[in-house]
Fold this protein.
Amino acid sequence: MLGAEHHHFDRLLRGRRRPAGAPAIAKSEIAMTAPIAALNFMLIPPSVCYNYNTAEWPSSINLRWRSGALSTRACGSTALGTDGVADRIAIASDHAAVELKAALAEHLRAGGHEVLDLGPAGADPVDYPDYGYRLAEAVASGEADKGLAICGSGIGISIAVNRHPGARAALVSEPLSARLAREHNDANVIAMGARLIGINMAKACLDAFLGATYEGERHRRRVEKLSNPSFAKEPA
C-alpha cells in the first residue's frame, strides 16, 4: 500500500495540490507501465522538475516503471559544479551495477569531468565492500574530488564507503536528496542502486549532487562529528 507521502506527490503531479501559479498536469501526461499498487517507493516530487523561475512545468513529465525502477525525462541537467569547474570523480560498483557505472562514466566525461574508474571491469561476481573501500580511500586521500558508488541496491556499497572516517556517502534515489546531501551534509560520495533506479534518474541525481555546494555554517559542527565520532552515552 502506498504511504501518505506517495499520495501527496501523486496529487501534486496530477495538479490537485500543485505549486501556486503552476498549471495542472493532465492524467494523460503521466504514463505508468506497471500498476500503481506495485509502486513501493515515493514518486518524484514535482519541485524537482518545476521551474520556479519561469513558473513553468517542463514540456512533459513521463514516469515509467522500467527494470524495476522509476525514471524521468524532461528535468534539467547541470553536469559541472556551481563554479563551472570540472571535478575528478572516482567511480566504483559491484557486478550488478557495471552497466550503470559505464553509462554514468560516459555522462561524466561528456560533462567535462575526469573519471577514475576503480572497477570492476566485467560482470563476474565481486564483493562490494572491496570496491567501496577502494573508492572511499581515493576520495579521502584526495586522489579524487568526489565519488560515485553503485551496487544492486546501493545499500551495501554505501555502508562500505562510510566505514572510512574521511568519506561521507549518501544513498539517494532522487535529485532533491542528492542536492541536500551536498548542501547540508558535505557528502563527498553519492551512492545509488542500479536495480532500483533508471538511467535518466541516476543522471539527474548525479548532476544535482555535482551542481550543489556545501553551505557550511550551522552544518559545520555536525559534519565535523561525522569524521570524528564520539561514542559518549550522552550528547555533548
